[in-house]
TrEMBL record:
Residues 1-29 form the signal peptide. It comes from the Bacteria. The keyword Metal-binding does not apply. Residues 39-177 form the PA14 domain. This is PA14 domain-containing protein. The keyword Signal applies. Pfam families: PA14. Keywords: Carbohydrate metabolism, Glycosidase, Hydrolase, Polysaccharide degradation, Signal.
Length: 769
């Protein structure tokens, strides 16, 4: 279907199709009326008649590259100034066809025919005036005929026909006649194909492929392409696809395969020091070289070489042929000496007999069978989060330590392995005594005698965070305790006349959970037996399931119970980088802080509330807050604000709702990028990007969304190395626009110049208040 959008944005020049016709087709000399005239399939045949009915023997027939004439007198010598006619006709193969936006203009008689069907019929004597007729015609694939008739009765004779190809959505035909040749002297393969018949071909997309996938791809406007093939014995072929000016892609056609000779040695096998191990067997040690990470393309034959010095000479001690034992992953040196030092290297040979270079030699010492000594100085120190074990490192070959744990009469279970003289156990239950056993191991796996120590993780304290009257005037205690600690035994609440005597009287308290996060749980209970008491200090103690209590307790004073006023004028202003919250400070002398929660609107039983989210504690002098959580995507959010005084009294909450701006790029990014771990963060007003190093990539490209231009702009290219680690890549954008959300794309560039699909990251850069 032809759309106005395509017609507006993709028209050819005003000269129409005539600009694409070959200039080499010149007007022929006038032959005799009886002579046959043949014009090229992109050139009009023009016929002159001395009458206005196109009858009789033509005065002349020749070829014309364009229909654009202005005759003030006779068009030919021997013809009259008036009462003559001229016919232009073109028959050619239009490939897959298309649509054409034409304009036929001129004086007197004008007619346009497409495949014999009349499209324009202006057949009147206009004198020196004229007509201009626009229109569009569409044709299918194959051959078609376009004809223009012009008659001049009186006055000037003018005629002009332009017909640029209009936009279409029809794919061009697949290229035909693809041949492939290979030159052994240059190592290049060359493909040639027949030029497409379409009038709107922009270029051809050429790819070089193997039976397992693509190798390289590029575009050309010609009908041939060459590529230097690797001499690896694999079959290669060229595949060609026609692309028209409207970015319609035709079907892909592929030529025959060619096979270059295999003279390329396989890559050096990927054998690392960690892949070489030694086993202690009954009849002596054995050296094992693991090839599980080696790619099948590096083989299929692998050899193991041994030397007593890094520089050699090397002797072959083992081979492995994957064609005979396809599941094998090890090369073995079955007979090395005990207690000796060797250097091992490996080579790979392909099916054509090409042999790789040797790997970097790996130094191996055959082990002894003596276990390291037992650890000394083993100690356990516990707090509310963990039990930390420490010990002394001996000099007798221990390289790692195994730590076991047991409670009561249970059998010891492996907790983990340490590579240094310290182990942190966070799995113990608070208040439960655990027995730890530590073994030292050397590089050969010999284990020392066990050493034990006991430890007990402390129960986390419960923290009283508020004490104020409830709706019935009873003292209501708010308690906060760490979420990951055992307080299943409940809480014990005490009161006293001073902070030092706060554990004088045990109070009745039935805690109920009111709030929970990943870090803490908050409970509340009413002290029903506190009425009339002169005590002004209260504390709370958490109790573990086994009855063990926390060793620390904090006292709170029951004096100020008046909550501060509600913050006034809370308003949310959506910004390109997030949301600005502003409010007026309540008039209270002991204002200490604000409690702010950002959530999502939720309607239950017709009541709209602000649910979920995360909370922030803000300084008491704050009257604004910049929320840069996530990036603005048009969703509705809500914020709940409470004032908190010095006695930890909370005001009633005030809530505001607002819809974020939507600053996301209009351009959709395809999924499937091989670039992983991409993160964007604000740092000192700049954006810092970090991502994982991608194997096989020779460089990277960083793009930033330009909202004004409506496209991604490339801002960096190259290796973009991280100065601190080869595992990651890094880029600092010192020109990131402030006060908006900034969107980035990062793609990998390979050795052949191709670029991967991009990964996405975004960061909100709030302006300085």
């Amino acid at each position: 279907m032809i759309t106005d959008r395509f017609r507006t944005g993709l028209r050819l020049g005003a000269a129409g199709l005539s600009i694409a016709l070959p200039s080499a087709c010149v007007v022929l000399a006038a032959p005799s009326a009886a002579a046959a005239v043949t014009c090229g399939d992109t050139t009009f045949k023009r016929t002159f008649y001395s009458n206005t009915s196109f009858s009789g023997t033509p005065k002349k027939t020749d070829c014309d590259t364009t229909v654009d004439q202005k005759w003030t007198g006779a068009p030919l010598s021997g013809m009259a100034t008036n009462n003559f006619s001229v016919r232009w006709s073109l028959t050619r193969d239009f490939g897959s066809g298309g649509c054409f936006t034409y304009r036929l203009a001129g004086t007197d008689g004008l007619r346009l025919y497409v495949d014999g069907t009349r499209k324009v019929n202006k057949w009147t004597n206009t004198g020196d005036g004229g007509n201009s007729v626009p229109g569009t015609f569409c044709i299918g694939s194959g051959k078609h005929t376009v004809r223009v008739d012009h008659t001049n009765w009186t006055g000037l004779s003018r005629v002009k026909f332009t017909w640029p190809a209009s936009s279409d959505s029809k794919a061009p035909l697949a290229p035909t006649g693809i041949t492939t040749s290979y030159s052994t002297s240059t190592g290049k393969a060359t493909a040639r194909w027949t030029k497409n018949r379409e009038l709107d071909i922009a270029h051809y997309r050429v790819s070089v492929e193997t039976s397992s996938g693509g190798v390289s791809r590029w575009t050309t406007t010609g009908t041939s392409a060459s590529y230097a093939l690797p001499k690896d014995g694999r079959k290669y072929r060229f595949c060609v696809q026609a692309v028209d000016k409207w970015t319609n892609y035709g079907a892909t056609a592929c030529g025959p395969y060619v096979t270059p000779p295999d003279t390329t040695a396989p890559p050096v096998p990927d054998v690392r020091a960690s892949d070489v191990t030694v086993s202690e067997l009954l009849d002596g040690p054995r050296v094992n070289v693991w090839l599980g990470q080696v790619q099948p393309s590096e083989g299929p034959v692998f050899a193991l070489w041994r030397a007593t010095a890094a520089a050699g000479p090397f002797t072959e001690v083992a081979t492995m042929d994957l064609r005979k034992t396809p599941g094998e992953q090890y090369l073995y040196d079955e007979a090395p000496g005990e207690g000796k030092t060797y250097y091992y290297a490996a080579t790979a040979a392909d099916a054509a007999g090409n042999i790789s270079a040797r790997t970097t030699p790996v130094k191996v010492s055959t082990p002894d069978t003596t276990a390291p000594g037992a650890v000394t100085g083993l100690a356990a120190e516990a707090d509310t989060d963990r039990t930390v074990l420490t010990w002394n490192v001996s000099s007798d070959g221990a390289v790692r330590w195994e730590v076991y744990g047991a409670e009561g009469g249970a059998a010891p279970a492996l907790l983990g392995t340490a590579s240094a003289a310290e182990y942190r156990d966070t799995t113990a239950k608070p208040g439960v005594r655990r027995t730890y056993t530590v073994y030292a191991l050397d590089a050969a796996g010999n284990r020392s005698k066990p050493v034990t120590v006991t430890g007990q993780r402390e129960v986390a304290p419960a923290m009283p965070v508020a004490l104020r009257p409830d709706a019935e005037g009873r003292p209501e205690l708010h308690i906060r305790v760490a979420a990951n600690n055992d307080h299943s035994g409940g809480f014990r609440v005490y009161s006293g006349s001073s902070a030092s005597t706060v554990r004088t009287t045990l109070r009745a308290c039935a805690p109920e959970e009111v709030f929970r996060t990943s870090l803490y749980v908050e409970y509340t209970c009413a002290l029903t037996d506190f009425g009339g008491s002169t005590d002004r200090y209260v504390t709370v103690v958490a109790v573990a399931g086994n009855g063990v209590t926390a060793g620390y307790a904090k006292a709170v004073r029951y004096d100020d119970t008046v909550a501060p006023p509600v913050p006034a004028g809370l308003a949310a202003a959506p910004e390109p980088w997030g949301t600005t919250l502003r409010w007026g400070a309540p008039a209270v002398a002991d204002l200490h802080s604000y409690w702010l929660r950002a959530g999502r609107p939720e309607t239950v039983d017709g009541v709209r509330t602000c649910a979920g989210g995360s909370s922030e504690t803000l300084a008491g002098g704050a009257t604004s807050f910049q929320d840069t959580t996530g990036v603005p995507d048009g969703e509705e959010r809500c914020w709940e604000l409470r004032a908190v005084d010095g006695a930890n009294n909370y005001s009633e909450a005030v809530t505001v709702y607002a819809a974020e701006q939507d600053t996301r790029p209009a351009e959709v990014t395809a999924p499937g990028s091989p670039v992983t771990g991409l993160e964007a963060a604000e740092n000192a007003g700049d954006t810092v990007l970090n991502w994982d190093t991608l194997d096989g990539a020779t460089g990277y490209r960083v793009y930033r969304w330009d909202r004004a231009a409506g496209s991604y702009e490339r801002i960096a290219e190259g290796a973009l190395e991280n100065p601190y680690s080869e595992e990651f890549r890094h880029f600092r954008d010192e020109h990131a626009p402030a006060g908006t959300a900034v969107y980035y794309r990062v793609s990998a560039v390979y050795a052949d110049g191709t670029e991967s699909a991009p990964a996405l990251a975004a960061v909100a850069l709030a302006p300085t208040l």
